[in-house]
Design brief:
The complex is a heterodimer of chains A (108) and B (178).
Chain A lengths: L8 H8 L5 E2 H11 L8 H14 L2 E4 L11 E4 L1 H28 L2
Antiparallel strand pairs in A: 1-3, 2-3
Chain B lengths: L1 E4 L7 H13 L2 E7 L2 E6 L5 E7 L7 H10 L3 E6 L2 E7 L12 H32 L1 H5 L3 H35 L1
Antiparallel strand pairs in B: 1-3, 2-3, 4-6, 5-6
Helix pairs in contact in B: 3-5
Classes of the chains: A mainly alpha (108), B alpha+beta (178).
């Protein structure tokens, strides 16, 4: 997988929601729950991101755990996808750590 | 039932979305879309958001794309080529965009600009071929040949202009990011 810059917020949450096999509907429910409704991803953005991530090998199509509707497509993280998520997590953590001093000084 | 003939160019999808919304506000709800033709059925006036989505996947995967939109509250109305027409009743505070971040807006515009550009270049090559290169056709001044020449020139011009308009929107988007 080619090296890439910071992930978009949507891409990050999509990866986070795909640690278990999931379809679009399940992903959006999970993202809404963990962000308390602060992150809402449009269907075009979600569909486009899934296509891109699959092409890059970060996720793969898989059998849905609930076969409620066979039109629904499910995905799950690959090992590369896990790594991508982890790398981004540590990158953001560093960004926050690097800002600690300033936040304390600013008293914010 | 009401049939309206109206031309929207490929770079005018935002205007088209607004127009469909204003029709719904008058109680005319979109039923079918054709080449410059829109069929509406009469119903109650409603506040409906329309969105055009340029589908880029395989034909056999379209249903899974439509299902995803349905899962997120959008109703599929019809399609025209790769353009998929979706709608949703407008509710205050609800996500109204199908492309919710700048990255995906950028990707969609870039894809559409590239298609327009490639088609434009193909037409340009055709035009050069029949006006300058091709021995038989370039010397011909018969009415059909001249007509075709003009037609291809117009199509090339429109595609070129379309690519330019989409590029302008990409530049605006870039300015809003940086």
């Amino acid at each position: 997988m080619k090296k890439r810059g910071p992930l978009t917020e949507a891409t990050y949450y999509i990866l986070l929601a795909l640690q278990e096999p999931n379809h679009g509907y399940g992903m959006m429910q999970m993202i809404e729950r963990i962000t308390e409704g602060q992150v809402e991803i449009g269907p075009g953005t979600l569909y486009g991101a899934l296509g891109k991530l699959e092409k890059q090998g970060a996720i793969q199509a898989t059998v849905c755990p609930d076969s409620s509707d066979d039109r629904r497509k499910c995905y799950v993280l690959t090992e590369e996808g896990q790594q991508l998520l982890l790398d981004e997590y540590y990158r953001m953590k560093r960004v926050v750590a690097n800002s600690e001093e300033w936040v304390k000084e600013a008293g914010a | 039932m009401k049939r309206i003939r109206r031309v929207f160019f490929a770079w005018q999808e935002l205007e088209e979305e607004k127009w469909l919304k204003s029709m719904a506000a008058q109680g005319w709800h979109l039923r079918k879309v054709g080449w410059c033709v829109y069929d509406f059925i009469k119903g109650e006036p409603e506040d409906i958001t329309y969105r055009l989505y340029s589908y880029s996947g395989k034909e056999m995967d379209l249903q899974s794309c439509v299902r995803l939109f349905e899962d997120l509250g959008w109703e599929w109305v019809d399609r025209l080529f790769s353009w998929q027409y979706f709608r949703k009743p407008h509710k205050e505070g609800e996500q109204d965009e199908i492309l919710s971040d700048n990255q995906s807006k950028w990707d969609a515009l870039k894809r559409w600009r590239n298609i327009t550009l490639i088609l434009g270049l193909m037409n340009l090559f055709n035009f050069i071929n029949i006006t300058l290169l091709n021995e038989g056709l370039s010397r011909s001044t018969s009415v059909p040949t001249v007509m075709i020449r003009i037609l291809i020139a117009v199509v090339t011009g429109l595609l070129g202009y379309g690519a330019y308009r989409i590029q302008q929107r990409m530049n605006e988007l870039k300015d809003s990011i940086l």
